Amino acid sequence: MAIMDYERLVADIPDYPEPGVIFKDITPLLADNQAFTAAIDDIANHFMKAGITKVVGAEARGFLIGAPVAYKLGAGFVPARKPGKLPREVYSEQYSLEYGNDALEIHKDALCPGDRVLIADDLVATAGTAVASAKLIEKCGAELVGFAFLMELSFLNPRDVIGEFFDQEIYTLVQVG
């Protein structure tokens, strides 16, 4: 398979959501059937031999990446949701993000010891969502295998932040310096 130029399908939106910020819009990549298929295949193929049993994706764009990666891996998908969205007993984890604070929750029975888990998301920037997701996996007693992202804003040093807590592999398709 030829190497896909994912970066050409990421649109820069200046001054969104606030002045001075250049938002990286992945919706053109998602809308391109060849690029979206290649991105999901690239992530899944990278982790194909890792014995992944579950993929965790954070609300909401993590669902767009995590669910098809889980399907491709033959694994289950576990949504990490915003507070109050899940109907049963949950674990919760607070985190900081680029523009404030938030929390993620997963059902307490979503993962269990013996599960080998991949976190998949569209973007890693300040790494708050990734670290919160990983901490939720730990709370369930499952094993975190790695992190996968379509895009990494490397100028924000998310690998350093993740590395303060976790030493698992971080795999990204596009790095923005």
Explained architecture:
It is a single chain. By secondary structure, this protein is of the alpha/beta class. It has a single domain, classed as Rossmann fold (3-Layer(aba) Sandwich), CATH 3.40.50. The protein is built from five helices and nine strands. The protein has helices at residues 27-31, 33-47, 61-73, 128-140, 158-163, and strands spanning 11-14, 22-25, 54-58, 76-80, 90-97, 100-107, 116-124, 143-153, 169-176. Strands 4-3-7-8-9 form a five-stranded parallel β-sheet, with helices on both faces. Strands 1-2 form a two-stranded antiparallel sheet. Strands 5-6 form a two-stranded antiparallel sheet. Strand 1 and strand 2 form a beta hairpin. The longest helix has 15 residues, at 33-47. It starts with 10 loop residues before the first strand and ends with a strand.
